[in-house]
Amino acid sequence: MKVLVTGSAGFIGSHLTLKLLARGNDVVGLDNINDYYDQNVKYGRLQRSGIINSLEEGKSIPYGILLKSTIYPNYQFVKMNLEDKEAMIKLFQSEKFDTVCNLAAQAGVRYSLTNPQAYIDSNIIGFMNILECCRHYGVKNLCYASSSSVYGLNEELPFSTDHNVDHPISLYAASKKSNELMAHTYSHLFGIATTGLRFFTVYGPWGRPDMALFLFTKAALEGKAIDVFNNGEMYRDFTYIDDIVEGVVRVIDHPAQRDASWNGKDGRVSTSSAPYKIYNIGNNNPVKLMDFITAIEKKLGKKIQKNFLPLQAGDVPATYADVSDLVEDLGYKPATPIQEGIDKFVDWYLEFFKVSSPK
Asked: What is the pLDDT of residue 316?
């Protein structure tokens, strides 16, 4: 099976790529390596997979040229924008993918408040190009990143894939809900199996520098205060990266199927008469933000200064994933304990940034 992983220099994409390579898949990774966050982290991920030999070399990666890994003979990488239609067409024509896993996107809820155009370009136009290329170049299985943010104003917990998600509260969330609608259309019209994955607050080694765990750890080590929104009364279904990747791999191996019992009157939201499916991938165990911070403090052996602030626009006070479909269909449920996951992240952070442990 030949797999295209978009966003392969990203957090989830880089881990998924290594998992697929380890089990023998042929993989092409794609990423535009934008500067939304520290590019050195992205270069470090590419170095880990043998695409570049040093962080400095990452600055000169050519656009649109397939590079071969020096570590994995079954891995190639290309720097490319999803919204570059002509380049995407050429890639799909030449590589003939069996499966596409689209993890590339403009991420971040808060960033979408000030830079909305980036979300239209990558998450809407870029995703449209993915769908069109799958349609015209024989791809039968597409899985793609959605987000727990689509639940928006829904207050019914735990969040179920059969809940209404018509009230997003950020453009980022709206773009992800749009992806689900676009995917269903292509499943219905062209028979492409599409599976949307609503990820819940992913964390772990090689994580994103704009996420809470990274920001909190960095501030703690520098002796700075952290911003704690909603006065700490936040709950998040933090999900460890290895659990996320295992869920994605199982989806890749089990393309969406038509629901023969589905009808337009009372059919489930998460399935369809088309080969279409939506899954939550979350830990199914929400953690209070203050307990999350305490776990970081425990690992670092020091207290973190805190600035308590009100809830930010676009944020929700709680997330909690119902993963019953994931368990029933794929026999899988994320289960990494929060302290274990935080410990592994901090160990990686200290090594990557060459920081001495405060203990």
From this structure: 85
Residue in 37, 75, 119, 172 annotated catalytic? 172
* pTM, rounded to two decimals: 0.96
Tokens 């009372």 belong to: 266
pLDDT (tens digit per residue) in 83-139? 999 999 999 999 999 999 999 999 888 888 889 999 999 999 999 999 999 999 999
Distance CA(3)–CA(10), nearest Å, equals 16
| Residue 198: how many other CB atoms lie within 10 Å | 24
Segment (H or E) for 272: none
How many CB atoms within 10 Å of residue 14? Answer: 26
The two tokens of residue 150 are: 């689509």
Residue with tokens 């659990």: 243
**Catalytic: 240?**
no
Residue 359 has pLDDT above 70, yes or no: no
pLDDT digits (tens, 9 = 90+) for 252-296: 999 999 999 999 998 999 999 999 999 999 999 999 999 999 999
Residue 328's identity, in one-letter code, is E
Strand 67-68 relative to strand 75-79, pairing: antiparallel
Q: What gap in Å lies between CA 226 and CA 296, rounded to an integer?
A: 12
At 197, phi and psi to the nearest 5? Answer: -115, 110
Q: 254-276 b/e with 16+ CB inside 10 Å = b? A: bbbebbeeeeeeeeeebbbebbb
CB 168 within 8 A of CB 149: yes
Alpha helices in 191-288, H assignment, sequence order: 212-222, 241-253
Whether residue 352 is predicted with pLDDT greater than 70 in this model: the reply is yes
